[in-house]
Amino acid sequence: MSDSTTSGPDNSVGRRSVLLGGAAAVGGAALASTVAGSAYADVRGLPGAGVGRLRDPFSLGVASGDPLPTGVVLWTRLAPEPTAADGKGGMPNRPYPVRWEISEDERFARPVRSGWEWARPEEAHSVHVEVDGLRPGAEYFYRFRVGNDVSPAGRTRTAPPPGHMGDLTLCFASCSHFGDGYFTAYRRMAEDEPGLILHLGDYQYEYPASDHDVRKVLGPETRTLANYRQRHAQYKTDEDLQLAHSVAPWLVVWDDHETENNWADEVPEQPDPDFLDRRAAAFRAYYENMPLRRSSRPRGIDMRLYRRIRWGGLANFHMLDTRQYRDDQACGDGYGISCEDRFDPNRSITGEQQERWIMNGFRNTRARWDVLGQQVFFSKLDLDSGPGEGYNMDAWDGYVANRDRIAHGMANSNVRNGVVFTGDVHRHWAAEIRDSHDHPDSPPAGTEFITTSVTSGGDGSEDAQQGVLDDNPHVKFYKDRRGYVRTRFSADELRVDYRTLDHVTEPGAPARTAATFVVDDGEPKLHRRN
Question: For the PhoD-like phosphatase metallophosphatase domain, which residue ranges apply (predicted)?
């Protein structure tokens, strides 16, 4: 893997991207030949089947997610007018049958599975297809059709069979504010050709437009279902984001801004009698716009998002929800403060049921690497450089007992290599996790890798935070630039590349590797390679 990538004709992913685009370009003729005599003739008589020709109903692209050894979720959403203020995407108020197809090649000459799914107005004409019957550890291409319109093609893959130990390239990202800059990091991530992508929260932001925005944010602060649908749609019109969705399956979890800043279970940031209605609307729109299984379909103000994906024998990905079940932040929330309430053993960021689920996963694992994919800083981080102490109450430092129980479980279970992937803080960090962070001599429990933002916070700076690093010896790296994290899992080691962009206030920046760390199998310690 190179230290710098730019798009262009010599880039292998550029070639793959052309193939994906070409698969869509072959359009109606190629797809019609594969479905002649198929179930399409039987569906034409159903209500809403005769759609005519819509204006690019696939303007939001395609996506896949939550891969299993024999299947994967395919997603699209019909929206010929994607940013319509009513959140309906310009679609009539009736259902449409959507054809889906999976092939072993990008030109769809070797189709293996196909079928129909309804795009319904009550679900914003989104489509979630849970495909089964595929080969484990295999690459596939997929696309959709409605009427005479054919979607762009996407590439996906199934998880390997149980016990398989082949290598995996994985990228993860978080915090993409549309107004703060261009989503170039998503394109660079796609150019790395990962087998899997994790998004760790703040996929979209609820804020209204600002005078300082680099790109115009549409609509008011998101509070209603129409607001959230419009905001998600605006984000998904971004070509860089569409490309990243189209090259690999995603595992997604939310943080706060998909709903509202710093919300905690049923407690909003500021008093709001309508918060639960807002939460229900945000959850519904999130599901409609993500490649999630039906098991994550929201029920009012509740949505089961934490789940576990097994990648052969190589890795387990325990995807957490640290918003929906947490106690309200201690000490009035905020930064740079400390108080005794954060040590209360009864306070939780995961909730009791999710904590038990995490611990059961640790006890029963047989994977080489166990990864927590989650939102906020896990390791202890004293932000007050010098003799004082100050902590972020919105992170795990505001829930010390809960954090230490999980770190202890990671260090004293069947977990062979414990890893935490984190978003939220708009900076790159790397840290070693201790069994108890208040006892620096306690046994090592795992390693934590925190990704910077895609755009949030703007271009960044060369601030080194040396005082904070000096006060937190278990923290080994800091970088204030935008980007993402690229990883390579193997049976012997985990390699982590911190990818950065010099700017996001203008499009097209190359990605560079600011630092590389390696974790050897069986040794929860960070080894810097550059």
Answer: 170-498
